[in-house]
Amino acid sequence: MTVDEAGAGTEVLAAGSATPVLEARNVKKAYRTDDGLKVAVEDITFTVAPGEFVCVVGPSGAGKTTLLRCLSGLMPATSGETYFEGKLIERVPDRLSVVFQDYSRSLFPWSKVAANVELPLKVRKVPKAQRTERVQEMLTAVGLGGAGKQYPWQLSGGMQQRVAIARALAFRPDLLLMDEPFASVDAQTRFELEDMILRVRDEFGVTVVLVTHDIDEAVYLADRIVVLSQAPSTVKEIVPVSLPRPRSQTDTRNDPEFARLRTRILQMVTGH
Amino acid sequence: MTRAGRLAVTLLLGIWLPIALIASWWVSSADSFDPYFPSLQIILTRLTDLWIWTGVTTDLLPSLGHLALGYLFAAVVGIGVGALLWRLPPLATALHPVMYFLYVLPSPALLPAVMLLFGLGTAMKVWIIFFTAVWPILLNTVDGMRATDTVKLELARSMNLSTFQTLVRVVIPSASPQIFAGLRTGLQFGIILMVVSEFAAATSGIGYFILYAQQTFRITDMWTGIIVLGVVGSILNFLFLRLERRVLRWHYRARTALNLV
Q: Where are the beta strands (DSSP E) in chain A?
């Protein structure tokens, strides 16, 4: 990456009033494969302000998951940088939490639901009494107040993802990074989970970045949508969503603005 | 059918054949005058005289002591070194052929050499039990830990778990079904070597008792030793399975739950 590009990134930072929670500057990720170097993510730059809900959408195979792993610090970018609250990310920051797509694999089957949610608090050495209280509070917030004593595999898929979200929020992170969190549940459950995440986001004031291939979902949830191109992906456009809040599955989805936005983004994603 | 009813049927299905076999042994040997195959009644009477409780303290307990020491040592070393090799995959790859070679090598073949190194006493027996039991435990631990789900490891990294925390909270629980498979094989190997090491050189112990009885033509005594050994082996395996069922309860229940869906 050149000095000029770095300079351009600094301008973006200076333009905002507050320090962005997350900032990606010219993030590029290439893999070495048997067929040579494969570029998954070409050049991604965007910022996320405190309290914002940003969705990243793109066609299948646009390197969305790769991008999220670079943004979270799980994986180093080939070039470019990401900053969390103004600091360069080298590993996963303490105040950042990741929710993975595959809830059946991200929860520990050997621990009960409460113990799963408690783990990040234990790691942070929160005292026992406070942990127990917090776990119950988080489970109640995601609508699973009575499930603490069950095992994850005794719950439905949607409920398991609620547990994963409760765990991610348990230590009150500043930023929640979610990788297609609702992709593996049925449509009805997906609507419930979308409303749940909007509710807990308001309740805990957390900033959210959610990666999805579902354009309707992105429009329904987001304050702004980062639209990616086909791989090797670049940012096609960043679309602000002015739909009123609180959003509702019936009213928001019937809003003419909703239809306009989804058509526009669909055209960008499919390339027409 | 009720739960209790199904349990009773399972129990009956499992128990009728052993009972039938013992009964037919009892009946067919009842008027035996063959010195090599005395009647079961005579064997059992002799067993009570010999083993309750003199034989238990003089012969059985020393053998079980060797087994316990060698086996516990093997479990600690097997799981400990397994964890180390999980952290150092290149070392694991380099050592794998050697570990596998030592695993498949029939360890009784090593007994003469072990006797030269450790003498004929306790050290030799504990050592050969350890050396036989450690390989299945170690190999299964390494395999199980290597198979840890990448999503769970990534989650551990996203939560900034230390290496030790990742090991204790993610890798060991996730490998525990396979670690237990290794521990079970290790226990069976250990019991075998407990007896074989006493065949090779001993002045007490249950293996020694069986061999010495046969060599001094106390054939009835020999049979009592074999029966005691069978019973003790069964009890040890039963206790092990109980422990495994308890520790891996989540595993068996999750498997059943997923099959039902």
A: 22-33, 36-48, 53-57, 79-84, 87-88, 96-99, 175-179, 207-212, 224-228, 233-240
